[in-house]
Amino acid sequence: MPGIEIRPAQIEDSPAVAGMLARLAAELGDGERFHSTADAIRLHGFGNKPLFRCHLAEAEGKFLGLALYFPVFSTTRGQPGVYVQDLWVDAKARGTGLGRKLLAVTASAASEDWGAAYLMLTVYGDNEGAVAFYHRLGFSSEERDRPLWIEGPGFQELRRLD
What we know:
About 35% of the residues lie in helices and about 25% in strands. It is α+β, with helices and mostly antiparallel strands. It has a single domain, classed as Gcn5-related N-acetyltransferase (GNAT) (Aminopeptidase, 3-Layer(aba) Sandwich), CATH 3.40.630. The protein is globular.
């Protein structure tokens, strides 16, 4: 897409990253569950031990997309990979190849930075447009794999078992 620059996020981009993530959450119906702030992005994404990385797409001073990602390791594959936590493209830039380009830049950066040999992500099953997009790119799924999580009181109780 001409005129669009994709670059690594900087600490001063934290408000823009939080804003795009809030838009993604609202689009997915997760607005009430969304709690990331610019301060959280700044604290956890930058500094001595950042927990994630992010690429931003912008044109003419406007942010049009992001890919937020971090390293993972598969004992099955015996290799490091990259997990894309969030991929968002502004509605007016969808269908232009920007999402594919953000994933490509992420895959290249992770491959160079920590030897990533695969890319993983999770998509809501009812988000048919996203599922179709990822399938067109060649993504596959394993029906027996199911993301699970523990948080809040359950997470605190689990920590106490240590």
